[in-house]
Amino acid sequence: MTRVIYARYSSDSQREESIEGQLRECKEFAEKSGITILNTYIDRALSAKTDNRPEFQRMIKDSAKGLFDVVIVWKLDRFARNRYDSAHYKAILRKNGVKVTSARETIGDCIDREQGLFVIKPSGVEYEKLTPEDMVVLDLQGNVIEGHLKPSSDMATHCVLYNSFPAIGGVAHTHSRKATAWAQAGRRIPALGTTHADYFYGEIPCTRRMSAEEIAGEYERETGRVICEALAGRNPMETPGALVHSHGPFTWGVDAMEAVCHSVIFEEIAAMALDTCLLGCETPMQKELLEKHFQRKHGTEAYYGQA
Length: 307
Known about the structure:
Blueprint: E1 2-8, H1 16-32, E2 36-43, H2 54-63, E3 70-73, H3 83-95, E4 99-102, E5 111-112, E6 117-120, E7 136-139, E8 144-146, H4 155-164, E9 170-173, H5 177-185, H6 194-197, H7 212-216, H8 219-230, E10 241-244, E11 248-253, H9 256-278, H10 287-298
Parallel strand pairs: 1-2, 1-3, 3-4
Antiparallel strand pairs: 5-6, 6-7, 7-8, 9-11, 10-11
């Protein structure tokens, strides 16, 4: 496995010594993992809120040459602070067979499909206190294989989604304000503009109300089932999220990072759609425009971006 390092600092308070510290920790991380470092890319005094970073762009272009398969960053905010750039450039790297990993933060694939195992956070433990040892390993039937804590109460929902959507590698669930408002209203989010179309191919579905029997029975498993029911006939990689009626949004992606990125994007789309509807417009965007924006980023002949 061949890796490169990307390092960056953005202000007068972060000078060259910041770069040296990042490189040192990234190299230590690589050595412990028995990894070869092929190259380093360094942007100095440049913010990650923009993608106008020469070394960052050179790294993205080089990823298409098959020279490396992983980019190591000190922390994930070194890669990008703009949520859309982060999702966009990680998608480009994935198409080129390259993943992003952090020397200081743990996030990646949640599932090993060859072994039929997945990882989930423990129930009720604050994120700030979580360690890798706290995570719970389960099989795809929900049986605990490894871990000393109880798995998330949403574990059965994750099981259903992983079993139903073979392409996904991570699931995220939030109660973000605007998306949850749509869920509480039991309303699908129409595709009203190009920001929506850049990430979701059509309206974002909302599940039906769950029956009293479903709620009283295997509630979390039934939650997964109504999500799959709402996605019937659709490609889950083209609709990477759904609303659960009266509950909130679930999102997924090829890995945990993409699932989280989709949660952030989902909330922004929900907020913009709510504002647009309050202005009196609920008419979906032109089908041609939806098609253009989605396909230019995700289609077989995608041309958006630098790679």
